[in-house]
Design goal:
The protein is mainly alpha-helical. Helices cover about 85% and strands about 0% of the residues.
């Protein structure tokens, strides 16, 4: 009888143990898949950044080789040297004024933040916001004081090392792709069955043209935003106009969120001259954004590539959820790639609708 009860008890435990092991295995597998997907996304974005940098280098190489009859290797060397010379020239031309303005901004930032808090404290709503910010600062200081200084230092070093290693990878992958693009191009084509390789050539060529067109339009748009912002800030008499315009140009690479991020330091600097100056600066940034969104972008899209703004915003939210800030930055080229693939492979090939332009 005791033996029978013991065997029943073991039989009752056995399914529970099995179910527990299955649940643990599924959770572990899910965590591993998510971790690998996160790492894979980071790698894919590094590759995408390299491709985006290599495309204009290859376009310049082909153009120079066609015009001068130089070999592609020599043409690429000339293009690379020209890019380095232009970057060095711009840095040399602007380094004095811009670097001084950046130093001034770093020195004035604590004073600007303190001034902003004083301005906020003059109204009831501002007092509430300031008190919330102060409470957050106290909590952050408590957390920092309780933390290990060695751990914080190690985290900072790790972050810097991660950024530098990513830049290192992007630089050399860009160089390798620019030097021998056919190696990687043909490697992708060979993964496609023989019957679909001709179509794969067409899709790859269209993807390259689309990304190059998008990048060209983006650089043009960034230039316009930087110039208009710089002129407007100079007219308003805002200090550090050069560095603020440069920040506005660079951050305009990120649709939707970039202009808001660029406005924050400009508003802090303008607050030195009073709250009304902040309104003028906000109006300036809104006006520049309106010109960029309603005039520059439609002209660029008409000539180069068209992407729905709502789709870009949704993509930024979705991809940013999984990949963080990098996903937000590169959401637009990802949307461009997906649109080309959907139009060519699904709508045209799958549904047979050849009226859709690619």
């Amino acid at each position: 009888m005791e033996v029978s009860n013991a065997s029943n008890s073991e039989g009752d435990k056995s399914p529970f143990v099995k179910r527990t092991l299955i649940v643990i295995s599924l959770v572990t597998l899910t965590v591993l898949i998510l971790a690998l997907a996160y790492i894979g996304l980071q790698v894919l974005f590094l590759v995408l950044a390299s491709v985006l940098l290599a495309l204009p280098l290859r376009a310049g190489t082909r153009l120079l080789s066609r015009k001068t009859k130089l070999p592609e290797g020599a043409s690429l060397a000339v293009v690379l040297l020209s890019v380095v010379a232009v970057i060095y020239g711009v840095i040399a031309l602007l380094s004095g004024a811009i670097s001084q303005q950046i130093s001034d901004l770093q020195e004035q930032l604590p004073e600007l933040i303190e001034n902003a808090q004083q301005q906020l404290s003059q109204s009831k709503l501002g007092q509430r916001i300031a008190s919330d910010l102060s409470a957050d600062d106290i909590n952050i200081q408590k957390m920092a004081s309780q933390g290990n200084w060695f751990g914080r230092a190690f985290g900072a070093v790790s972050s810097v090392f991660g950024v530098l290693s990513n830049l290192y990878i992007v630089f050399f992958v860009t160089l390798f792709i620019a030097v021998s693009p056919d190696t990687y191009y043909q490697g992708v084509i060979l993964l496609v069955p023989m019957s679909g390789r001709e179509r794969a050539h067409e899709v790859m060529a269209n993807l390259g043209d689309t990304l190059l067109s998008w990048l060209t339009g983006q650089v043009f748009s960034m230039t316009v935003v930087g110039v208009l912002t710089g002129i407007g800030l100079w007219i308003l008499g805002i200090p550090l106009a050069g560095v603020l315009a440069l920040m506005a140009a660079l951050l305009s690479f990120i649709p939707n969120f970039g202009p808001v991020l660029a406005l924050i330091p400009a508003a802090l600097v303008a607050l030195v001259n009073g709250p009304e100056q902040v309104l003028y600066v906000a109006a300036l940034y809104a006006g520049v954004q309106a010109v960029e969104s309603n005039l520059i972008t439609p002209l660029v899209q008409q000539e180069l590539i068209e992407m729905p703004p709502a789709l870009i915003l949704v993509a930024q939210v979705v991809i940013g959820t999984f990949a963080g800030a990098v996903g937000v930055i590169f959401a637009t080229p990802v949307v461009a790639i997906i649109m080309v693939l959907v139009k060519m492979l699904y709508i045209r090939d799958g549904l047979g609708d050849t009226s859709v332009k690619v």
